[in-house]
C-alpha cells in the first residue's frame, strides 16, 4: 500500500512540432530555429520532448540509413540537453497528423507487408538499432518508441492496410523492441498505439500487447474519438477520458504497478473550443495526476502547424501550446502552472479502492464495450460523475487477492450494478 501513496515526481513534456516547416524541417534542418523552439518549451518548465524523425528521410533505401540525418537528430538531442530537456525518439514515422510517411522500398512496385515481410522487418530493425546506437551515449536520451501509432497500418480505417493476426503483431513488437534495446541498452523502449488497440473489435494490436510488451504502457487520449461528440466539452467523460485510458491500461498489465505514460493528449477544436482549451487542460491533467503509477504526461503539441501548409485536417492546425509565431497560448500557460504546482508538491494519489470489473478474454476481440458509448465506458463515467474514483480490473483477476491488494482495491462493482 505504501508504494501506491508515496509522492512521486511525474514527468511533464511535449511532443515537439517544429515552428518552421513542421516535420518537414528535417529536409532543411536549422539548428538555430530548433534552439529557439526549445528555449520556449523549457520556459514552460517542462522536462522532456518526444521527437519524430521522418522514416523515409532517414532511411530512404532499405540499406541506406543517412549518417547526416542521424547527426542532425543528435544535434537536436544535444540542444535539448543544454536546456535541461530529456528526449524520447519515435522511430517509424510512419503516420503523423493524417499523413503517412513510408519509404519507397515498402510501397507500389516494392509493396510488401510492413509487419511480416522478412526484408522489411530486417530493415526496420536495422534502422531502430541505428537510431539507438547514435544516441546511446547521450545522458538526456530517454529511449525509443517503435513508431507513432504504427498500428493504424494493420486494419481499418486505414484505406490500404497490411492485415496481420495478434500473434504476428506480438512477434513484430518483440523483434523491434529487441533491436531498440540492442542499439541503446537500458533505456526506456516501448511501443505506442492509437486507441483502436483499446476500443476496436478484432484489431490485431491488443490491450494485452500495449500493457505487457515494452518498458511502460503508452496511451494516446483524443476526445474527438466520440467522447466529446457524445458527452459534450464540459462532461465528466470528456475531462476524465485520459484518466480512464490510464486505468484501463493498468487493468491489462501483469505487473500491478506497471507505469503508464500519457504520451499524447491535446485539446482539439471544435470539440474543445479554443477559449476552453485552458479549462480542458487543467481538468485533464488533474484527473490523470489522480491515477497511481503514472509515468508522465506529454502534451500534443508544442507549436501550431503553419497555415501556409496545406491539406491538414482543420483540428491539427491549432493544437500547439504556442502559436506558430511562438506566443504562449492559454493551454500552455495553464500547463506551466500545473507543472510548477506538481514540482512544488508532487502528486500523492490515494489508492482507487473501488474497481469496475471488465469481463473480456485475453484477446479482447469485442473490446468496443470499453469504447465511448460502450456499456463499460459509460458505467465508468457514471461512477466518476458521482465523485467515485474507479479503477479497472479484469474479471479473471477479480478473485486474485494479491493483485487486488497490490493495487489497493477493496471493493468490486460490475457494469450491471453500476448502471442501477
Q: How is this structure best described in words?
A:
The mean pLDDT is about 95. The chain folds into two domains: about 350 residues, Glycosidases (TIM Barrel, Alpha-Beta Barrel); about 60 residues, no CATH class. Strand 11, helix 13 and strand 12 form a beta-alpha-beta unit. Helix content is about 35%, strand content about 15%. It contains 15 helices and 13 strands. The protein has about 425 residues and is of the alpha/beta class. The chain has an eight-stranded parallel sheet. The longest helix has 18 residues. Helix 11 runs parallel beside helix 12.
Q: List the uncertain runs.
A: none
Report strand order across the widest sheet: 7-6-3-2-1-10-9-8
Structural class given helices, strands, pairing? alpha/beta
Strand % is 5-15%
Report the total helices: 15
State the CATH topology of the largest domain: TIM Barrel
Q: What overall form do the CA principal axes indicate?
A: globular
Helix content: 25-40%
The main sheet comes to: 8 strands, parallel
- Order of helices and strands, N to C? HEHEHHEEEHEHEHHEHHEHEHEHEHEH
Average residue pLDDT: 95
Any idea what the CATH superfamily of the largest domain is called? Answer: Glycosidases
CATH second-level architecture of the largest domain: Alpha-Beta Barrel
Number of domains: 2
N/C terminus separation:
31 Å
Number of strands: 13
Protein name: Glycosyl hydrolase
Keywords: Hydrolase
GO molecular function, one term: hydrolase activity
Organism: Kitasatospora acidiphila
Amino acid at each position: 500500500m505504501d508504494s501506491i501513496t508515496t509522492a512521486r515526481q511525474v514527468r511533464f513534456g511535449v511532443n515537439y512540432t517544429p515552428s518552421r516547416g513542421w516535420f518537414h524541417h528535417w529536409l532543411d534542418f536549422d539548428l538555430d530555429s530548433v534552439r529557439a523552439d526549445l528555449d520556449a518549451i523549457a520556459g514552460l518548465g517542462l522536462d522532456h520532448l518526444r521527437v519524430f524523425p521522418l522514416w523515409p528521410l532517414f532511411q530512404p533505401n532499405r540499406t541506406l540509413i543517412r549518417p547526416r540525418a542521424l547527426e542532425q537528430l543528435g544535434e537536436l538531442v544535444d540542444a535539448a540537453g543544454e536546456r535541461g530537456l530529456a528526449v524520447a525518439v519515435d522511430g517509424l514515422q510512419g503516420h503523423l497528423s493524417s499523413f503517412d510517411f513510408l519509404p519507397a522500398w515498402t510501397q507500389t512496385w516494392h509493396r510488401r507487408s510492413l509487419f511480416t515481410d522478412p526484408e522489411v522487418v530486417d530493415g526496420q530493425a536495422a534502422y531502430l538499432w541505428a537510431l539507438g546506437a547514435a544516441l546511446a551515449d547521450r545522458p538526456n536520451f530517454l529511449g525509443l518508441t517503435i513508431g507513432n501509432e504504427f498500428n493504424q497500418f494493420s486494419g481499418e480505417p486505414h484505406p490500404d492496410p497490411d492485415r496481420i493476426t495478434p500473434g504476428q503483431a506480438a512477434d513484430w513488437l518483440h523483434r523491434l523492441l529487441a533491436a531498440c534495446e540492442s542499439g541503446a541498452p537500458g533505456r526506456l523502449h516501448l511501443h505506442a498505439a492509437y486507441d483502436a488497440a483499446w476500443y476496436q473489435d478484432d484489431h490485431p494490436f491488443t490491450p494485452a500487447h500495449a500493457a505487457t510488451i515494452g518498458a511502460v504502457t503508452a496511451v494516446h487520449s483524443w476526445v474527438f474519438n466520440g467522447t466529446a461528440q457524445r458527452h459534450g466539452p464540459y462532461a465528466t467523460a470528456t475531462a476524465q477520458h485520459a484518466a480512464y485510458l490510464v486505468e484501463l491500461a493498468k487493468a491489462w498489465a501483469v505487473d500491478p504497478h506497471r507505469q503508464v505514460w500519457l504520451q499524447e493528449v491535446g485539446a482539439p477544436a471544435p470539440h474543445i473550443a479554443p477559449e476552453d482549451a485552458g479549462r480542458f487542460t487543467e481538468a485533464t491533467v488533474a484527473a490523470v495526476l489522480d491515477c497511481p503509477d503514472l509515468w508522465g504526461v506529454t502534451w500534443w503539441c508544442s507549436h501550431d502547424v503553419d497555415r501556409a501548409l496545406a491539406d491538414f485536417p482543420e483540428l491539427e492546425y491549432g493544437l500547439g501550446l504556442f502559436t506558430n509565431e511562438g506566443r504562449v497560448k492559454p493551454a500552455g500557460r495553464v500547463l506551466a502552472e500545473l507543472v510548477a504546482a506538481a514540482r512544488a508538491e508532487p502528486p500523492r494519489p490515494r489508492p482507487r479502492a473501488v474497481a469496475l470489473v471488465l469481463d473480456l478474454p485475453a484477446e479482447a476481440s469485442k473490446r468496443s464495450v470499453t469504447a465511448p458509448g460502450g456499456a463499460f465506458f459509460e458505467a465508468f463515467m457514471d461512477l466518476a460523475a458521482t465523485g467515485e474514483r474507479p479503477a479497472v480490473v479484469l474479471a479473471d483477476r477479480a478473485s486474485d487477492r494479491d493483485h487486488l491488494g497490490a493495487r489497493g482495491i477493496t471493493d468490486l462493482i460490475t457494469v450491471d450494478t453500476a448502471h442501477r
